[in-house]
Input
Amino acid sequence: MLAGFAFFAGTSCTKELSGEFTQYQNNPLNDTIWATSLKATDAVNTIVNDIMPAVEKETFNLENSKSEIKVGGNDSFRIYFDKGIFTSLENGVVTPVKPEGTAEIQIFRIRRTGDLIKCMRSTELNNVLMESAGGFFIRVLKNGKELSIATGKSYVVKWIETGADPKNDMRQFYANESNPAPDYNVTDPNFEWKPDTYSTTIDLFWDSGNSRLTGYQMTLSSLRWVSIQRNVGVNSISKLKLTTIFPPNYTNKNTTVFAYYKKQKTVVKLDFDYATRSFKTDLLPPGAEIKIVSISKIGSNYYLSEKEVSNLTTAVSIIKLEPEKISLAKLQAYLDNL
Output
């Protein structure tokens, strides 16, 4: 077993469960049974609804020849829509939206590692780890109806990288989702990133008043989930297997587990293994500097654990996590600091 436990500081937690199973009468802590498949109503699938923040909202005029939208009034994230690019689904038929009146844009931005965990998103493509520079969920509504981008049309997003230079070789990704697609704060078992086959790498740009490259400029043909990612170049032959185990009260019905790189936004969600009652991944390379985070919801209570692995070298590593009780507000604050 790997050593190197470094639990986070500044968060008050109360230990409630241990490896010794205790019976609690009429209490969800009694449930130690794992499921072969998960239901939408399982506690683990309601976590995302609790920890995701509200979307940012702005209104724009559809009659403008070009609309520039600064979400939240923030200069670091700008969206540009041309006039007449939207469609809606009317009685099963894709119909152009008349460029009149106003529409509402809703945004959730993925800026931190903690944001990826909040929305339960890994940075992987076909079992290959990716590095993310960020991403977002974007939705446009008119009269409460969700709009799409018309075939052959596009819009532009400028994302200014604050605190660091933008990275080369980043590509834009959309998402495969369930049909109908769920809301941004609802678990989607069919979600996966897919590369934009039209684009190569994302353009970088200089913002006015800066003498260096400051951000990414994307030309996009689809709304909803968008991500900026690149392959981290891990040789599949050299990948290691990481397994996490828990006290019996923590099951795949109430617990989710992530491993993330400490020096870049690379996140992998560990899969549950019903046969061994554990969570595992085999996507991590030798020498990876990672942290493992688990979030559990049992009844109305939340539990959190974190372990640091300073140098992943063992071919098969088994790590036991001991979650501790935490308030929802402190859990959200913890994720905000990742």
Observations:
- Residues 145 and 176 are 21 Å apart (CA to CA).
